[in-house]
Design goal:
Layout (H helix, E strand, L loop, with lengths): L10 H67 L9 H73 L30
Helix pairs in contact: 1-2
């Protein structure tokens, strides 16, 4: 290369390096928050819901038994021709059975969800680990490379910068214009 680069500022590299450092901090914070939220979700599915719905099945089973007993008492207390008068007890029994079916269905859903959520969580944690490894290994190398580039460019601009009259050279474009009309030396007193 025969020409010079005419570099006047390396601030853009320093600003980019600072922005990358801030990105590193923000990314690490985001990873920590995501992993915390993932842990909460896993705990909710694997522990909270896994305990809640079986307890609801037991409670619904008890409610069905109670509703059946209430209906049997109502039917035994009335005459055979007035069997329609136990409508409320029949509705309560049907509602208890629906609640029991729903709770049993939720138990099956939670079992399937536990497996799929765990698999997805493991995959996400693997991706987060790879990103963290990148931030720990490659990112410092990139920041160091940017630092070296900035230092090299600073040295380059210092070497090729115009110099003043005190033994340093000036470029032809930066020297003051010469006045050729008055070339004779002035007499000294």
């Amino acid at each position: 290369m025969s020409g010079s680069a005419h570099i006047t500022s390396t601030d853009a590299i320093r600003e980019f390096r600072a922005a990358l450092q801030e990105y590193d901090l923000e990314t690490r914070d985001a990873i920590a928050q995501l992993l915390l939220q993932l842990r909460r979700t896993l705990d909710w599915v694997e522990h909270d819901r896994a305990r809640y719905w079986p307890a609801e099945v037991r409670a619904a089973s008890d409610a069905v038994i109670q509703a059946q007993d209430d209906l049997a008492r109502c039917e035994s207390a009335i005459r055979a021709e007035d069997r329609r008068s136990c409508y409320e007890q029949r509705m309560a029994l049907e509602h208890a059975r629906q609640r029991q079916r729903l709770a049993e269905q939720k138990v099956r859903v939670v079992r399937r969800l536990r497996v799929s959520v765990r698999q997805e969580a493991d995959a996400m944690q693997g991706r987060m680990l790879r990103l963290t490894d990148f931030l720990d290994t490659e990112f410092p190398r990139a920041l160091a490379a940017l630092g070296r580039m900035s230092a090299a460019l600073d040295k380059y601009t210092e070497r090729n910068a115009p110099r003043s009259d005190s033994g340093q050279r000036e470029s032809a474009d930066d020297s003051p214009p010469q006045d050729d009309t008055n070339t004779a030396p002035e007499p000294q007193p």
